[in-house]
Amino acid sequence: MNLSSLGFFRSLRTRNRQFAVIGLGRFGRAVCMTLNSLGYEVLGIDQNEQSVTQALKDEIAAHAIQLDSTQRLALEEAGIPDFDTVIVAIGNYIEESVITTLNVKELGVNYVVAKASSEIHGKLLHRVGADQVVFPEHEMGCNLARAITRPGILDRFELDPDNSIVELRVPTAFDQRTIADLDLRNKYGVTLLAITRPGHDEKFEVNPSPVTQLHKGAVMVVIGSNHGVERLPLEDDEKA
After folding, report:
1. Per-residue model confidence as pLDDT tens digits over 196-209
2. b/e string for 109-141 if b means 16 or more Cβ within 10 A?
3. Would you place residue 14 in the very low, low, confident or very high pLDDT band (cuts 50, 70, 90)?
4. Residue 58, Cβ neighbours under 10 Å: how many?
5. pLDDT category of residue 1 using cuts at 50, 70 and 90
6. pTM for this entry
7. Which residues have C-beta within 8 Å of that of residue 208, sequence separation ≥ 6?
8. Which among 62, 74, 116, 183 counts the fewest CB atoms within 10 Å?
9. Element (H, E) at 221
10. What are phi and psi of 89, to 5 degrees?
């Protein structure tokens, strides 16, 4: 159960079966590969012939073509207006990224996700119509900082700047205590969504009964404020 990595893909309106990814660098390739592995039809686009050839060779997309995405006619001829969701994965070339995003929106694509390399870049992308702007490097840095400072948290998916869904091990402080007894909502501002069954690390019991007893080492998933999450008595904190 990897909440962080799935969060981005859940936001891509996965009821749609076709995606186009413009820019086949590391981020674009990762998006293509994951969508493709999830069973979606993906078109990869890049100006660099070698990147396109490699994408086809690695079979990370159903189709891959070489074109200049700053040329609106080229995108139109490639059938971009037929895609409901397009990911503009160009992060290092701001002008190319912004023009591509503008072109895609003007061609009538319903939902455009664009990668930004800075706050200003992100604002520009929003101005030209991007429906969602992502900052992969920034998010990766934040996740690393949290992993170093609170290693007891197994995974984390931010809903917004103030709230998250978090996966963690049941700490010693919660061992043999019931959900009702812990009163997590009032004490920590979080709600327990799911917990693994004893001896079944991969199987979750969703919305468990208040009388369910927690066991040290099991995996629990909570949702709530980041402030509340930071106050949870994680195992690593107890050892410090």
Report:
1. 876 655 688 889 99
2. bebbbbbbbeeebbebbeebebbbbbbbeeeee
3. very low
4. 13
5. very low
6. 0.63
7. 179, 192, 194, 195
8. 183
9. strand 219-225
10. -100, 30
